[in-house]
What we know:
Layout: E1 2-10, H1 14-32, E2 35-40, H2 45-51, H3 57-64, E3 68-73, H4 88-98, E4 103-109, H5 122-125, E5 130-136, E6 148-152, E7 155-159, H6 166-181, E8 186-191, H7 197-210, E9 217-222, H8 223-232, E10 239-242, H9 244-257, E11 265-269, E12 275-279, H10 296-309, H11 313-328, E13 331-332, E14 342-343, H12 346-355
Helix pairs in contact: 1-10, 1-12, 6-7, 8-9, 10-11, 11-12
Bound molecules: nicotinamide-adenine-dinucleotide (NAD), 3-isopropylmalic acid and manganese (II) ion.
3-isopropylmalic acid binds near residues 89, 248 and 282.
Subcellular location: Cytoplasm
Family: Belongs to the isocitrate and isopropylmalate dehydrogenases family. LeuB type 1 subfamily.
GO cellular component, one term: cytosol
Amino acid sequence: MKKSICLLPGDGIGPEIIAQGVKVLEATAEKFGHEFTFETALIGGAAIDGAGDPLPEATVSKCRGADAIYLGAVGGPKWDNLTPELRPEKGLLRIRKELGLFANLRPAMLLPELAGACLLRSDIAAKGLDLLVVRELTGDVYFGEPRGIETRDGLRTGYNTMIYNEEEIRRIAWVAFETARKRRNKVCSVEKSNVLECSRLWKEVVMEMHREYADVELSHMYVDNAAMQLVRDPSQFDVILTGNIFGDILSDEASVITGSLGMLPSASTGAEGPGLFEPIHGSAPDIAGQDVANPLATILSAAMMLRLGFDMAEEADLIEKAVRKALADGYRTADIMEPGKDLLGCKSMGDKVVERL
Length: 357
Ligand code: NAD
Ligand code: IPM
Ligand code: MN
């Protein structure tokens, strides 16, 4: 099969980790007789420096014309003092919005090969962790209006708007219920309906949607409790359905239970058009350019691209197996290092995965 992939390496460790993912995709294509073509475009700080805009029009049209988009990460201290509209992060938010990528799937799994890197007590870790955060991605305080900083009563005042309409809630709830049916049939909707009107509507609409999914077990949890339950007993969760900001925070928390932020992939999809596949972590400026970043979240995002974007389940399985094999063989990057294992850099870890395909 022929597929075109738009690469958005971005900033910080972005180019290093995307290079490893591309190696894995090329080796997979060769093995299965596919033809993957790659075109690179600017986003984030790299695009601000190169084109004066965190999301140049040329990038949007390259993305629209591709079968899938593969993103590293954006942002860094160099651009932290720019106005919000010009920050690297705005490039990522805009591409999600422009392509209608409202559903962000973030699977978190505790691989047996990495049990030793899990930060939880061993009896809790032994119960396992295999959950999926279904995070709404194009609404909430991220995009709500009005927003701004202004002077009120002589004081500098910052404000944002948490906002969802019923249609936005319905379509993400639909994704969660449908996905749960292919997993362990459980959805936990996470909100803050004891305080926020936006969350009250969220809960109401999710309950209405549930009438069509009576076979799926639905529970509701306040976000503060959910943050606590995630580390107390993560095995209780199957699908976590939540809004943009809560999903952002809870997925970073879930990642570290699996060993490291550097392990979690994600897929952002919409009703139509190409999906965007990216690790959940950021540009890690503290380790950028040192060849020490963990490329596995990015490599696993490539597997999600093949499975969800191209309907290539066998190919995706192979990549996931190769990652697990590299871990089983004792290879580790610094973030998941354990005593007695082999410490590798970003590039060598990519090589180990390719060798095991
Ligand atoms: P971060 O995720 O970049 O890093 C947090 C910590 O995790 C750092 O110590 C980092 O070294 C470590 N880490 C992250 N990825 C790693 C990997 N693959 N291997 C090993 N260690 C890894 O979050 P931050 O430091 O809060 O943000 C840095 C920049 O990234 C900011 O500009 C932020 O806005 C941006 N950001 C971008 C994305 C994205 O592009 N999707 C996501 C989160 C943050
Ligand atoms: C993520 C990031 C982004 C988000 C930022 C960089 C805009 O943290 O992809 O998780 O908050 O969605
Ligand atoms: Mn995040």
